[in-house]
Amino acid sequence: MSVSHPNRQSLAGWWFFTSQDKILCVPQGQRIPFGQIDDLPVAESWLTQAEYFNDYMGEPCYRLALDEPIDLGLGEWITLYQLVSDLDEALFLLAGQAMQQALFLKTHQFCGQCGQPMARVEWEFAMQCEHCGFRAYPRISPCIIVAIRKENSILLACHKRHVKKDNPIYTAVAGFVETGETLEHCVQREAFEETGIHVDNIRYAGSQPWPFPHSLMMAFLADYQSGEIKVQRSELVDANWFEITNLPQLPKHGTIARKIIDTLVSNISQELKG
Question: CB–CB of 103/214 below 8 Å?
Fold first, then answer.
């Protein structure tokens, strides 16, 4: 991807204003600001920072990272996670792309090899050291997430970060891929480490970029093989088997976690009906 900055003569486009973990949303329509540059509060001095990065519905997408979520008179600043269920899937992916690119540029101003300043590469999205030539690309952290079935029940876990006093969220087992292991090995390891359960019949079920801050979730379905639940207390507060007629509070629609849980629920329901 080459570097491309808009100018006052540019056509209308989608504007992804980001700041830290938030994105600017308008109250109507697709939630992402759309319009001519002259119709938006884009200062002339910002144009060197604004950058074209993709397209949506045939129109260009520009991202502009601000140090602070200042009031631009367009709408409100919302965390991207709050928008998982509200944004069109394609827009959510674009918003995540904008935020991950902004994070990469912010955290790679200096070379990790020699400490000297880094500069943008013009013909692709990368930073290169002006001294030793070391080139860096945006970090992507591979993760697995797996929905596990045992007869008519699903294994769900409550992570420490999902604890709520009255209605805790339960989700599928997940974890980061470690060096030297396949995705299937990671599924087996994470399931056993977090819950004490051995799984088999592992099937790929899709993927989702997860910009919190730079993960790529790779989803699987699996079947219970053996073992009794033993919760890894450093990660979870609880894990249990839930029948599909008595499920706890689940992750938001739009997340790959909810997708694979719903898939297992649907599969079990169809088998019970058949």
Answer: yes
Q: In terms of CATH, what superfamily is 141-273?
A: Nucleoside Triphosphate Pyrophosphohydrolase (3.90.79.10)
Q: Are 226 and 198 in contact (CB under 8 A)?
A: yes
pTM: 0.89
- CB burial of residue 74 (10 Å; 0-12, 13-18, 19+): middle
DSSP string, 179-194: TT--HHHHHHHHHHHH
Q: How do residues 169-179 score in pLDDT, each as one tens digit?
A: 999 999 999 99
- Token pair in block for residue 84: 């998982």
CB 148 within 8 A of CB 199: yes
β-bridge pairing 59-65 and 13-19: parallel
Nearest-angstrom CA–CA distance, 169 and 239: 11
End-to-end CA distance of the chain: 51
Residues 131-164 pLDDT 10s? 999 999 999 999 999 999 999 999 999 998 767 6
CATH 3.90.79.20 correct for 13-107: yes
Amino acid at 216: L
SS3 state at 91: helix
Q: CA-CA distance, 131 to 102, in Å (whole number)? A: 23
Q: In the chain, how many H helices and how many E strands?
A: 3, 15
